[in-house]
C-alpha cells in the first residue's frame, strides 16, 4: 500500500499528465482487484 502511495507521489512530481496516467492505472488496478 505504501509503495502505491509513494509511486503516486513520485508520478505527481514529474508532471500533471504523468500523474493523471498513474492515477488512471491505479484506478484500473483497483477495479481489477
Task: Summarize this entry quickly.
It is built from 2 helices and no strands.
N-to-C series of helices and strands: HH
Helical/strand content category: mainly alpha
Instruction: Calculate the mean pLDDT score and round it.
Output: 72
pLDDT below 50 for ≥5 consecutive residues: which ranges? none
Topology:
Layout: H1 2-14, H2 16-32
Helix pairs in contact: 1-2
Task: Please provide a written account of the structure.
The structure is a single chain. This protein has 33 residues and is mainly α. It has helices spanning 2-14, 16-32. The protein is built from 2 helices and no strands.
List the defining traits of the structure above.
33 residues, mainly alpha
